Amino acid sequence: MLHFQNYINGHLVPPHSGKYLPDIEPATGQVFAQIPASDAADVALAVQAAEAALPAWRMLPTEERGRLLVRISELIERDLERLAEAESQDNGKPVGLARTVDIPRAASNFAFFGTAAQHFASETHFQQGVALNYTVRHPVGIVGCISPWNLPLYLFTWKIAPALAAGCCVVAKPSEITPYTAFLLSELCIEAGLPPGVLNIVHGTGLAAGQAIVEHPGIKAISFTGGTKTGQHIAGTAAPMFKKLSLELGGKNPNLVFADCDLTEAVATSLRSSFSNQGQICLCGSRIFIERSIYEPFKQAFLAGVTTLTVGDPQEAATKQGALVSEAHLEKVLSYIELAHQEGGKLLAGGQRIYLSGRCAGGYFLQPTVFEGLAPDCRVNQEEIFGPVVTLTAFDTEEQVLSWANSTEYGLAATIWTRDLNRAHRVAHALHSGIVWVNTWLHRDLRTPFGGVKNSGVGREGGLEALRFFTEPQNVCIKL
Ligand SMILES: NC(=O)C1=CN([C@@H]2O[C@H](COP(=O)(O)OP(=O)(O)OC[C@H]3O[C@@H](n4cnc5c(N)ncnc54)[C@H](O)[C@@H]3O)[C@@H](O)[C@H]2O)C=CC1
Ligand SMILES: O=C(O)/C=C/C=C(\O)C(=O)O
Predict the structure, then answer these.
(1) Among 47, 172, 291, 328, which residue has the fewest nearby CB atoms (within 10 Å)?
(2) How far is the centre of ligand 1, averaged over its atoms, from the C-alpha of 277 (Å)?
(3) From the CA atom positions of the chain, what is the Rg in Å?
């Protein structure tokens, strides 16, 4: 049985309470590790360590901070295979996905922000003969980074790397459901020579460790990715304390397929945007709207594609769909499948839990599921399911599909499939969505602003936006 520890003040330490929580492998349903059940006492120690480390870290030349981040990135690349296997075991995702997407992206996050900070310039405002204003961007101080279970190391490092690059010290908490790679990261930070206290990783539940991070008065900003309800709760605690907040929350993303698209490409990418990571990505396109004249050909090709998505042991190379992250999450997704039936949906594919044999007999597997015939305003088409369940709906006009696409409380990402450039721009601008992809999906350039509107969040991550979030601008005005 593995035993993970907290990473506080440069050391791997047990939780103050001495208590541990079980970490379950979703593919088997078996406990494979114990994780610290940390609480406010551990968070207080982490903040103390961060406070001690902050003066030296913020004064370190940007290039030197960058060198350390690039070193961590290199160590992640060196350990790619081990990290990918750990991620797959902890999360249930196919190991091939962890190897090609999750872990390389975690390495890129550190390499990108290690160098991006060196290109982060501040503004001057010159009034001829009157005054010169210049802006200095100071690190916010100690910041809290709280991440979810769906892309564990990918999203954990997406927050930590810019915070460190900006000169902040960090108290971070990975999801208690997928803590493994965050623990391995602490070992790599020690090996890289990151000064003690600069990054502290506290494991435990949201209610104990997470809440303590949000409530600690020494922590000046919170960067959070997770469920919209949790984000709302965090904002309720942090906003009255005047903490800076970056919230990346849920999505119910529309995928708009126009008749003039490249159908083969649209189908292939829609299969990915529907079912990658078992549909557990906030960017997945769970509502597919297809122009009526190509509805049938799209549907037939899409359903043929679904039959190729082998569900199986995440460790096996042939597996395209692994396990859902937990039994509770599987139950939640199954309850939406039941709801889809009640709301009058016609099941086109999947819809059932899968019971594998052998090693994975106790795992949380679900068939990729497709419905049609559901009203755009029904609960299944309005609420975030966060699993391998999508709906197909035919539309007649651009106006109609836009009103359906914009009809949810979310506004994270949207995809448009068309060869008409004018339409692509027009529809993109009319979508209430932080991110719009045209003829692609999850094409990422780490310099771009990342985040949503409406209940999908507050603020933006990525590139300069992240560096701005982790710094406070100070204006200095000199009379000329
Ligand atoms: N936007 C996204 O990408 C994600 C959305 N979700 C959605 O949220 C639903 C619930 O999933 P959960 O695992 O419960 O996600 P969650 O939002 O509860 O968990 C995300 C992180 O927040 C922490 N947390 C929970 N309560 C907290 C609190 N009071 N203070 C501080 N930190 C806290 C958790 O420990 C975890 O590290 C999912 O079914 C899915 O619909 C879940 C994960 C990611
Ligand atoms: O930054 C990305 O490329 C993806 C981010 C995905 C999420 O925030 C999510 O699924 O929660």
Answers:
(1) 328
(2) 17
(3) 23
The reported pLDDT for the residue numbered 236 is 98
Nearest to 151 by CA among 73, 97, 230: 97
Is the same domain home to 153 and 258? no
Q: Which two tokens stand for residue 178?
A: 């997928």
| Overall domain count for the chain | 2
One-letter amino acid for residue 66 of the chain: G
Q: Is residue 451 domain-resident?
A: no
**Does residue 183 share a domain with residue 260?**
no
Q: What per-residue string of b and e applies to 201-231 under the rule 16 or more CB within 10 Å gives b?
A: bbbbbbebbbbbbbbbebbbbbbbbbbbebb
What is the structure's pLDDT at 32? 98
Beta strand pairing call for 471-479 and 131-139: antiparallel
Do strands 369-372 and 389-395 pair parallel, antiparallel, or not at all (unpaired)? Answer: parallel
Residues of the chain predicted below pLDDT 50: none
Q: What is the pLDDT of residue 356?
A: 98
The CATH number of the domain where 190 resides is what?
3.40.605.10
**Residue 372: active-site member:** no
Complex ipTM, two decimals?
0.96
Taking a C-beta distance cutoff of 8 angstroms, is the pair 25, 359 a contact? no
Q: Which domain holds residue 269?
A: 253-446
What is the Å distance from ligand 2's center to 444 Cα? Answer: 10
CA of 250, nearest ligand number:
1
Q: What is the reported pLDDT for 403? A: 98
Lining residues, ligand 1, CB within 6 Å: 146-150, 173, 175-176, 205-207, 210-211, 214, 225-227, 230, 233-234, 248-250, 282, 329, 332, 384, 386
Q: What is the pLDDT of residue 462?
A: 96
Measured in Å, residue 224 CA sits from the centre of ligand 1 at 9
- Residue 142 to residue 221: CA distance in whole angstroms: 7
Which residue among 173, 230, 286, 332 has the greatest number of ligand 1 atoms within 8 angstroms of its CB, and so is best to mutate?
230
